[in-house]
Design goal:
Signal recognition particle alu RNA binding heterodimer, srp9/1, four-stranded mixed beta sheet, 2 helices, globular, VOC family protein, 3_dmu_93_MTrfase
């Protein structure tokens, strides 16, 4: 994708008050991460003042949108949709696994599987599902 071509399909992550914390964690894990745009609820906004009304971040060249929902929902993230990361080194997969699994849930522990020499599938502490693969 060229820098002038906008990303047509973007993953949207809906949080209930933890968007900023999640974005901060995710951006700390990738060298080429940045906030592209962020708007926050003001004192008269529908959401808690200062919480994320809408944000777009870039992680390793992939844009994600994040919001703090103003409504509580009876649903959250599910592993049926996950963020798949091809890691280039063992240090990278180990570092990402340690950070993302802290306070989270292991779905497939870091290990060797028939399709990958080193792979893990987990839900982070926010409930977002990640698949980490050593390419």
């Amino acid at each position: 994708m060229s820098p002038t071509t906008p990303q047509k399909i973007t993953t949207m992550l809906m949080f209930e008050g933890q968007a900023e914390e999640a974005m901060t964690l995710y951006m700390s894990l990738f060298d080429d991460a940045e906030v592209i745009a962020i708007s926050r609820y003001g004192p008269d906004g529908a959401g808690a003042e200062g919480s994320v009304e809408h944000a777009t971040v870039s992680l390793a060249g992939q844009q994600l949108m994040c919001i703090d929902s103003v409504m509580q929902h009876d649903f959250s993230f599910t592993p049926s949709t996950s963020l798949f990361v091809n890691c280039t080194t063992e240090d990278e997969i180990d570092r990402l696994h340690a950070a993302l699994s802290d306070g989270g849930e292991q779905l497939m522990p870091l290990g060797s599987y028939g399709f990958s020499t080193k792979f893990a599938w987990l839900n982070d502490r926010f409930g977002v599902s990640w698949q980490l693969n050593l390419a």
